[in-house]
Backbone:
């Protein structure tokens, strides 16, 4: 099911296709809290959205073997990074976007490549350059060392 969502052939459980999520306004991205688990799935349960996908080992393999899924995961990373670039209010001690960033990094490592995870992570670190002291130290440490 998650592979079909990532390749754009099936909606998530909220009846959104991946392209619908990419068209969300900044206000929607900020206020809707159940899309990030679909755009950046993991093999662990989400504490925030318990009914979100939890990847099996076979699903991870299937996603990594699908060029379309991998292209779309990269496009999601670029899309989310553009959101972060347009908005700076998340550069503070506590913001739910910190969890989203961490999730994106983990997911990119898991289902795309270490290279894409590093690119995303380094882009985020460039966005906060000079303001690292404003970011929660636990989040910052993970981002730097993931």
Residues:
């Amino acid at each position: 099911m998650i592979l079909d969502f990532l390749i754009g052939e099936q909606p998530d459980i909220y009846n959104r296709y991946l392209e619908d999520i990419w068209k969300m306004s900044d206000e929607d991205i900020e206020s809707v809290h159940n899309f990030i688990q679909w755009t950046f799935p993991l093999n662990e349960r989400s504490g925030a959205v318990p009914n979100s996908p939890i990847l099996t080992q076979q699903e991870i393999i299937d996603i990594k073997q699908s060029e379309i899924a991998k292209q779309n995961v990269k496009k999601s990373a670029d899309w989310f990074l553009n959101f972060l670039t347009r908005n700076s209010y998340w550069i503070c001690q506590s913001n739910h976007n910190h969890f989203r960033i961490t999730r994106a990094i983990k997911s990119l490592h898991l289902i795309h490549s270490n290279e894409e995870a590093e690119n995303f992570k380094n882009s985020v670190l460039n966005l906060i350059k000079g303001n690292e002291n404003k970011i929660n130290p636990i989040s910052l440490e993970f981002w730097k060392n993931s």
